[in-house]
Amino acid sequence: MPSPDPVVTLHFWGVPGRAVPGAVLRMATLRPALARTPGLRFAKLLGTGDGRTFTVRDADPRRWGLLAVWDDAAAAGAVDDGPVGASWRRVADEEWSVRLRPLAARGRWSGREPFGSPRPRRWDGPVAAVTRARLVLRRAARFWSAVPPVSAGLHRAPGLRMAVGVGEAPLGLQGTFSVWDSAAALNAFAYDRPEHAAVVARTAREGWYAEELFARLAVLSSRGTVDGVDPLAQPSGSGSGGPTIPAP
């Protein structure tokens, strides 16, 4: 029977410009190999971007990702040790991966609750936030117009280590992955920043999302680099920047 406490992994692969076509091909062809992986509960191959506007111009064709949820720590090694990781390493010139444990989750992703219903617990180390939204297309323009102030506020947020826009498609399906010094730092951004609070209120009032997810996860370990730096080794407040979908 699957463990009630799954292990979550996120990989980012950076590729040189000449390898972008190969990366796009992998996004289209690696899903069957993932589906056959023992112990895998949920997986999404992801494009990335800076997320300043959540439109096509944000996309970064030189960084790609994989978020996966596993039965346990043993199963979670399948990406590093198996054909999916090996395929990406043939084209990548940089890799960063992180292991996570869900602390809280609300909402759905493609109709599922990928992180389950975590038991409340205290965590004193770094935390990550995963947000994901499927936009109601007729309301997308309002959402896009609201993003820049929130993104600007995030750049100034104390305790941010990194933030990357992620998505399954260039438009309409988007989210963020961010890492924070602590739960307190994440809470301060999510609830104390007026620009973020205003957008959260508009989200509920105007019904921007057809589906939404917000999850908080404990950072267990990481390895590798993003843009030549290990985000978890940086001093507090020196994160790489980026946006966040307003937390539901």
TrEMBL record:
Designated name of the protein? Spheroidene monooxygenase
Q: Which domain of life is it from?
A: Bacteria
Its source organism is Geodermatophilus saharensis
Map out region (Disordered) in residue numbers: 229-248
